[in-house]
Amino acid sequence: MTPHSHHHSHSHSQHPHSRHQHGHGQHRHGHGLAATEDSGSRLGWAFFLNLGFTIIEFIGGWLTNSTAIMADAIHDLGDSLALGSGWLLYKLGKKAPTAHYTYGYRRLSLFGALLNCIILIGGSVWILAEAMPRLSEPVMPLTEGMMALAVLGILVNGFAAYKLSGGKTLNERVLNWHLLEDVLGWVAVLLAALVMHFVDWPIIDPLLSIAFTLFILFNVLRNLRSTARLFFQAVPDTALLAQIEQRLLTQPQVREVHHLHLWSLDGEQHVLSAHLVVELEELSQYQQLKSQVEQLLSEFSLLNTTIEIELATEACRDRRH
Fold first, then answer.
1. Listing from the earlier edge strand, what are the strands of the sheet with 270-278?
2. CB 201 within 8 A of CB 80
3. How far apart are alpha carbons 115 and 103 in whole angstroms?
4. Residue 219's CB: how many other CB atoms inside 10 A?
5. Residue 11 has what DSSP assignment?
6. Rounded to an integer, what distance in angstroms lies between the CA atom of residue 181 and that of residue 124?
7. Could you tell me the pTM of the whole model?
């Protein structure tokens, strides 16, 4: 049997088929399994905290007649739904791979990040539609109520953001960014309420809600772009891909690397496949090359690697030209 006929579904021989979800991921960020377990509790804490406060916000926004507070309520609703879906998807993401989903369910957290972006875009458009008419006919909100809600908003969102600050997943980073934006938004609401309390400038309220909503939209669209890239299996890190190719070519027996693919399950766990064209004189060199490639790739902390070994004298079966 020639060396190329062994199709290796994993470069690490101790995990022949990479059926174990954490085969490579144990040492990704030096946090091991123990720290990743905390991701669910972090999301759960932040979800219940945010959901409770969002209900208070909608009531408060209605009572104070403030579009700025309603804008924050929409964004907090978006964050609450995203935190809830993130929590659920995280739980599903930890399930073991199956015959139908051989990579497991990690990709679901990416869907959570996409869903979050879509919810926030919809809410932002609604707030803009509510605030625009108020520019021509501004209504003075109840500033005392605004100040009280703003202080509460800073505390609640600040605590939720602190809870998620230790997160490593793309979904946690996206959500943490939204919570920090909400903290800044509440600071702006507090300052605006203070100004309107002493000066008769009711137009500050709709202006603030529009400015804040446009700021959120800009950042959400940017997050949507990075999430969509992962959905379409773009290379998550072009520098990493170039580095892997360069390192593979440093092996003396490797003449060429082609069909090199790097994609990501969730923005954190990456998968690699490659064809190596090699020149070997005997079988022992083949085994030596395998262990060298395994050692070389281990430093990149990839979830799964598939390496096809081809002899220099044979044609690549996947080559279409």
1. 7-8, 304-311, 270-278, 254-264
2. no
3. 21
4. 15
5. S
6. 14
7. 0.64
Domains of the chain in sequence order:
37-96+104-232 (no CATH), 238-311 (3.30.70.1350)
Burial class, 211, CB count within 10 angstroms (exposed 0-12 / middle 13-18 / buried 19+): middle
pLDDT at 181 over 80: no
Amino acid, single-letter form, for residue 281: E
8 A C-beta contact, residue 186 and residue 157: yes
Q: Rounded CA gap, 223 and 130, in Å?
A: 25
Closest by Cα among 217, 117, 134, 132 to 171: 117
- Each residue's pLDDT tens digit, 166-177: 666 666 777 777
**Phi-psi region for residue 301, left (φ > 0), alpha (ψ -120 to 50) or beta?**
left
Cα separation of 233 and 273, whole Å? 13
pLDDT score at 17: 38
CA distances from 101 to 29, 89, 98, 252, 271 (A): 25, 15, 5, 37, 15
List, in sequence order, the alpha helices (H) in the chain.
Answer: 32-64, 67-93, 108-136, 143-164, 170-198, 204-231, 238-249, 283-298
